[in-house]
Design a protein that fits this description.
- There is one protein chain.
- This protein is mostly beta strands and 450 residues long.
- It folds into 3 domains: 182 residues, Glycosyl hydrolase domain, family 43 (Tachylectin-2, Chain A, 5 Propeller); 130 residues, Galactose-binding domain-like (Jelly Rolls); 92 residues, Immunoglobulins (Immunoglobulin-like), CATH 2.60.40.10.
- It has 1 helix and 30 strands.
- The strands form 8 sheets. Strands 15, 16, 17, 18, 19, 21 and 22 form a 7-stranded antiparallel β-sheet that branches.
- The longest helix has 4 residues.
Length: 450
């Protein structure tokens, strides 16, 4: 079930799979006549479902709760007001239960430095909730601005608050948000300790698919220009997705150079550009002496829209230099408010990475990657070639980023997978990410194996 807002109304769509297809329930009618904004569903221990949401009438805001029918498509019984904030914005409520205590969290303030998360607790899902104050707010010492609109994740006996915040440095042209997570700590009296948000997060919650270290991390870096000290070249090699290097102004080309300290074996360079929905055209070069340079990757005509962009190849070098020649931002500056070259992270590895990438449909692609059900136990993948593309590579990943299977040097536009991993074992049931890359373009989709 997915509860989606349109205007001041909430609608319901459903599917037997997270991959869809989705069906509009209730013949397109609203879930309820009341205003429902930022709806979230909580399942109690007895199997009862509750929907918690924000309602605003005029300039008055409140957090409301209602029980859902067993089919989860109808509000049944009375609607309870859990909290009223008058003209103060309150939104993004969620409810969770720990032991016998219910917790209510929601966000308040404007979408600026005042945005923060408030919480309350009580002995019943319907309240009353003792509002106990702020547990998450901006941290100027770490340049963390406006954290909020959270959910709560439980893994084992640990609880995490998952939220978004403004990218840093912030920009007034558009709200560009980043997802984050921090651990919750509970006191013996069931209150929650205030969370101090950081730029390091909670670390890996599962085994990492990339075991090789980033040999560029913390090394010396220089750039052709920087917008300010907040955007220095060092920001692109600190393994911190909250900071970035950005060049000064909108002129091109711009370069970023990393000194690895000594000559090292290289087989993979990963670049996370500032806007993964845009493409960046560049040359990647390597050198042993910072004088004579060898081309490592040429994407001067590329149109890849993904993060990270991964360039693979064996080389020995001390210096790595990327020269950004242009970007599609130059044709779309209004939305992002900047056309400068920018990189969140550039990682250099001695073993090829196998991490899961953030994929975006290529606006120049002739067609997307399609899944075709073949004979029992196999899946077919079909794509349409794009101008400038070469031999294709098709890779299958788990949703945690572990490489399951890879097929290289594909000359056609179709491949059949027997659903076995690289060791020949049948892949487990679950959702997988599939990517097809032909040197100039990338297409991706997800599949569900039963």
């Amino acid at each position: 079930m997915y509860y989606i807002r349109s205007g001041d109304s909430c609608y319901l769509v459903s599917s037997n799979s997270a991959l869809g297809p989705w069906t509009n329930e209730k013949n397109g009618r609203r879930l309820h006549t009341t205003h429902i904004f930022d709806a979230d569903v909580f399942k109690d221990d007895d199997g009862t479902f509750w929907i918690v949401y924000q309602e605003h009438v005029g300039s008055n805001f409140s957090i409301r709760l209602a029980q859902l029918a067993a089919a989860m498509d109808t509000i049944t019984g009375a609607i309870t007001t859990l909290y009223s904030s008058g003209s103060t914005l309150s939104e993004g409520p969620t409810i969770f239960k720990r032991n016998s205590t219910y917790y209510l969290t929601f966000s308040q303030g404007s979408l600026s430095s005042t945005y923060h998360v408030v919480y309350g607790y009580g002995s019943a899902v319907t309240g009353p909730y003792t509002i106990s104050g702020t547990i998450l707010q901006s941290n100027s010492g770490e340049n963390i601005v406006a954290p909020g609109h959270n959910s709560i994740l439980k893994l084992g006996s640990d609880y995490y608050i998952v939220y978004h915040r403004w990218r840093y440095p912030t920009t007034n042209t558009r709200v560009f948000r980043q997802p984050c997570a921090d651990r919750l700590t509970f006191n013996t009296n069931n209150t929650i300790q205030a969370v101090t948000p950081t730029n390091t997060g909670v670390g890996a919650l599962a085994a990492l698919s990339i075991t090789d270290s980033n040999i560029a991390r913390g090394k010396a870096a220089s750039a052709s220009s920087q917008q300010s000290a907040d955007y220095s070249a060092a920001r692109a090699i600190d393994e911190n997705n909250a900071t970035l290097w950005r060049a000064s102004g909108s002129s091109f080309p711009q370069t970023l150079t990393v000194d690895l300290g000594q000559s090292r074996s290289i087989s993979c360079i990963e670049t996370c550009f500032e806007f993964p929905t845009e493409y960046y055209r560049y040359l990647m070069a390597v050198s042993t002496d910072n004088v004579s340079w060898t081309t490592y990757a040429d994407r001067s005509a590329g149109t890849l829209r993904e993060s990270p962009v991964i360039d693979s190849g064996n080389a020995t070098a001390r210096y790595v230099r990327i020269t950004i020649q242009s970007t599609s931002l130059q044709t779309n500056p209004v939305f992002h408010g900047t056309v400068a070259a920018g990189i969140w992270e550039m990682k250099v590895r001695k073993n090829s990475g196998t991490g899961l990438r953030m994929l975006h449909s290529n606006r120049n692609a002739a067609g997307g990657l399609k899944v075709i059900n073949r004979a029992r136990g196999t899946l077919g993948f079909e794509w349409r070639r794009c101008e400038g593309g070469g031999a294709a590579t098709l890779a299958v990943y788990t949703m945690q980023g572990k490489l399951v299977q890879v097929f290289r040097d594909i000359r056609g536009d179709f491949l059949e997978w027997d659903c076995r991993d690289r060791s020949g074992r049948r892949a487990r049931s679950g959702v997988y990410c599939v990517t097809m890359e032909d040197g100039q373009n990338v297409q991706g989709t997800t599949v569900f194996l039963r």
